Fold:
Amino acid sequence: SAVGDFLGENEQFNLDVLRHFVCLQNFEGLMLVQAMRNFLSSFRLPGEAQKIDRIMERFAIRFCEQNPSIFDHSDTCYTLCFATIMLNTSLYNPSVKERMSFDDFLNITNSLNVSRDLIIQIYNSIREEPFKFPKDHQIDNHLNYNSSRLFRMAEKQGWLHKQGSNHWTWNQRWFVLSNKCLYYFEFPNSREPKGIIPLEGICVRMVGYKDVDSFSSSKKPHTFELYSPNSEIVKAHKTNSEGRLIEGGGQHTAYRMAAPGHEEMHSWISALQKKYK
Structure:
């Protein structure tokens, strides 16, 4: 439940993590209730209604982005999701004495611009099978699954040298471009990324060999950098040795990477440019 509590917090850092966490999910072509099952199996929902509200609102936005023809607005999807969670609680929480009937569910959703067939489908699906939330010992397995799926969905991946925050060192890292984020790992088989760079509002450009900081311990050819045209800071998320996100970590004016060759550098620049066009 700690993951759900963290994702549901109303602090900007938590909201950013929630947005990028949801962007890792693929709901394209799924029925709403199946998409909810997939999503809610990845962590335990928090108990606080406001936290659930924020999490499901972000889920609804993502679902509608990938399935634009189902709902006229993400608010409709969000409201129906919240009603579906209420239905699941009513049918399976032993402390609830009066179970929600189909007519009850229809009544609380009748103001929504959705078909009766969809309401029937959702009610029957939840009545036949409740949502399954992971137990604490299942979370690690799910994280492994998400990491492997991230690699399978990658637009590009490979070794790059990343300039250290002190500008004196370059560390070899395995980079993965996926879901509008750039992840870097210590090794290709590492379970957790060492850092995540969201690409929203970020641009990329080639850095000439002579432009690399003169105080770097070793200049690198084939260098490019990520930068923000509207801000002095490129916000990113870093993790500690246990794979936990470090709040406020990874804020630089630019992130510089060096490719092993000229063609590979241009391949990375081209792939990154596609993410913000």
